Predict the 3D structure of the following.
Amino acid sequence: MRVTRACYSATLGSSPIPQAKLKFVPNSGTYPKGFNVSGVFVGVKPGNTSKPDLALLTSDRSCAGAAVFTKNKFQAAPVTFSRKLLQTKANAGIRSVIINSGNANAVTGAGGLEDAANMAKTTDQRVGSEDSTIVMSTGVIGQRLPIQKIVDHIPMAYHHAGDSHKHWMNFAKAICTTDTFPKLISRKFTLPSSPGIEYSIAGITKGAGMIAPNMATLLTVLATDAPIAPTVMPAVLKHAVDRSFNSITIDGDASTNDTAALLANGAAGGVEVSSQDSADYETFRELLTEFSADLAKYIVRDGEGATKFVTIRVVDAATEEAAREIARSIARSPLVKTALYGKDANWGRILCAAGYALISPPGQPINDVPEIVPEKTNVSFIPADGSAELKLLVDGEPEQVDEERASEILEMEDLEIVVRLGTGDKSTVHWTCDFSHDYVTINGDYRT
Amino acid sequence: MRVTRACYSATLGSSPIPQAKLKFVPNSGTYPKGFNVSGVFVGVKPGNTSKPDLALLTSDRSCAGAAVFTKNKFQAAPVTFSRKLLQTKANAGIRSVIINSGNANAVTGAGGLEDAANMAKTTDQRVGSEDSTIVMSTGVIGQRLPIQKIVDHIPMAYHHAGDSHKHWMNFAKAICTTDTFPKLISRKFTLPSSPGIEYSIAGITKGAGMIAPNMATLLTVLATDAPIAPTVMPAVLKHAVDRSFNSITIDGDASTNDTAALLANGAAGGVEVSSQDSADYETFRELLTEFSADLAKYIVRDGEGATKFVTIRVVDAATEEAAREIARSIARSPLVKTALYGKDANWGRILCAAGYALISPPGQPINDVPEIVPEKTNVSFIPADGSAELKLLVDGEPEQVDEERASEILEMEDLEIVVRLGTGDKSTVHWTCDFSHDYVTINGDYRT
């Protein structure tokens, strides 16, 4: 088989932002009170001569803080450090987040842990607060950080911090690796108990991109000036992350560094949200979930080599867990993803991926999987333009598919796949992209 | 991002056999007594004008029979039919296997089940034995079989059956879909209790290939003239399949039709192997496992778009299950597979895939994963030419990798990755291939 590699080229994290992505980059925003942010150039990665790679967020007062970390057994030093910090501080007394891109500080042993602590301590000293800095890193793994260079630039990052849209944009840019556009959103909201107070939330994230020789890392920072109590922070963040950053698939690989953090400083005033049974909590939880999902979708929009944005909705499921596993299995299947790239209405592959989502691993006894009943299963495409759905499988029976209509739907960049299981009333939604030649180019060819 | 699709071409199941694969196709063989096989042309798939697509195996006497089927919840009609047959017959009284390619008879409802039964019954009538035929199908899903055409050709398949190498080669060819070469091996062996008797085993398989709009299907038929009792057949086959056909990964998708069947007719005589505690059983189990693994490796050699044959060995593991899950996770990772295609010694991605192999799914609490201890983990490349191993990670610490040596090793078609966990004495071996531009072309572009 002849492979003519030279035909393929992919843009690898280079500026400028591609024309098609400009619509995802805001020109203004409303940012939470009391937070100052910056993104400055250090040159963490050899060869980086200008891209900002050190990001700092500080609050002018103490914050409640929580984070969701990767479950990968090989956890990077900043993950270990930050997890311990939040435990020790019982989710209170957080002032800063310091992040470097260009080097993941992963698989770096005791020295790496010292480096992470050093980044935090240097930030703490500037801010004037002990044990109050969350640390994140993304980039190459297995190499020690150029730590002196980084800590030498932290005062500069602190000095340049501010609260304007431009500051937030620099902050967002500094955590990017091979992302083709910075990912920043902000929003205003109110809480039922203080209808007269206007709260703000802002968030940045970076997506599935990699630099040789390392892996995709997802980092997220969410900041709000609403008064959320430390005690409810972990629960509200976990709820939101499960339905946003944990509901997207680029390639199914989970990195050593994945971290999503939420800081709430209460600078806008009002009554503290301290009970999970309150209307305020409920409102904030829904707001945070939707906000996180909107941010997470940008990662999918920027998936490596992606040409499609695909929503997978699994409904009428016996349990939410079953719905999620089925959605994840469809989102992860290389056969489904290449069919989407090829604009092929291949419901057989969708069904197949659903059918093996809940089965026991090879070598284990067959399990029953009551969550799926073939005769009750329905699969449809929902067109992005609001036109009628295209039924592919109805109660386990294949429909005679209008191929012309299917092609029309698959020509659009956005697509929704709905799987109706007919075995309950639970549901889930998952976002994914396709697998293209460019994905292989970006992840396979960059060293050749 | 510009994608210039026209640059890529992939051979889709067309003859002739690629030059590089000819070494995997035997010119002769030693076949088990009492079995006759054939492969004839029916034209199951519209557009197929000459490729044999109906395969028949019959035994001149009753066989013990067993099969391992897909666990996919959407099971094809021939899977449902054959599973029930083997249950009803308690693994005894089997005479034939009838297989069509070009249509999977999957998601075809009650009519599809009737078609599978009709194929079996027509075969039974020719052979002169009731309820004795295993049925398999592979190809397009969601479409009814051209059943009349198929049953009309079964007498011809029976008529053409024979026991020569050419007959076995036709039998192997007739089950292929997008395979680039037929997969057939045969071997002689003896059992301890009858050292004077020469037994034979032969097997055919087909691999991970797909025709629009359907999915990869793995079919295997193993036949021996050794006298294996029906009672021990399921156990011996399961042992072998777990360590062969269940230890290979092309893309991680498990089809609706996967079936591996073993028939033993005892035609060579000797003492029946009826106890799992006997030396004969032990010998046969090891023979069958190695034989199956050799056949399974051909599927990896013929993986769609594959340019590399990769052995993943996970050793010093706490449990065999943990070793297998870790090997599967590495084999399935698109990041690992694209790095292998790019000839990149990316141990970070290997480590990453190991690190998330055993973690709980998103939304579930963190589990401990005692099977992996970062400081005890070692990763090496074993060169295919027998030269010294290249250590990438030693006791959790990255080695200074000689990139030139790494490139040398990765230039070879064959590669072995060894992961030493240091947490026990269990091990596993898994075979996989890389992800290339051609994989995307074959699975994404064929309809455009």
Remarks:
- Residues 314 and 398 of chain B are 18 Å apart (CA to CA).
- Chain B touches chain A through 96 residues (CB under 8 Å).
- Chain B has a mean pLDDT of 89.
